[in-house]
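[job 0412] stage=complex_fold ligand=adenosine-5'-diphosphate status=START
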Amino acid sequence: MRLILLGPPGAGKGTQAKVLMAAHDIPQLSTGDMLRAAVKAETPVGLKAKDIMARGDLVPDAVVNQIVADRIDMADCARGFILDGFPRTVAQAEALDSLLAERGLALDAVVELQVDEEALAARVENRAAESGGEVRADDTVEALRHRLKVYREQTAPLIDHYRATGKLVSVDGMQAIDDVSAQIADILASEGSQAQVAG
Ligand code: ADP
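[job 0412] stage=complex_fold status=DONE, emitting structure tokens
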């Protein structure tokens, strides 16, 4: 199963990715997590990404495209993966399209988590408060506001990109976590049976 989770910061992509990872035994590929690990390890990519991420801007497409291409070729992705936080621009979506096509792979679904933007600030503030010692550099009200703007301008257009492929499914991300998970599971199960009927 190859999935993309789409939605603004704080929509619950990471939470749902973990549920899907356990249910389908496939890895979660979070470009945010991979970039934060690179920042922490002070790799060349990390040194380049650090300030960009702290501001809430996007790391250059070429950098993340390469990270994802390398990751998808690892053995644990053979049965599928959940992309969380990638693609984030139309150029990244196009790079992913060709990357998958080159490998003869297809996406099963793009799950859009729809949320009320007003509620997002509160969620992210809670996340910052609950994380104890390790507060993310970009989990401040200012950086979040900027990340939301970047999402609206650069990532939201992907909703149309994927709607055009017929792969987009939208879920109400304001429901309780378990209800969101249940709805995603239902949709994927019915898509799977449709795909089987279609051969
Ligand atoms: P959130 O969804 O909570 O905003 P992420 O962990 O997905 O957080 O991403 C954090 C930051 O990492 C982003 O604001 C951006 O700077 C960088 N980043 C993550 N994924 C990408 C990507 N696909 N393209 C460019 N930058 C990215």
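The pocket of adenosine-5'-diphosphate is lined by residues 9, 31-32, 35, 52-53, 56-59, 64, 85-86, 88, 92, 138, 147 (CB under 6 Å).
[job 0412] exit 0
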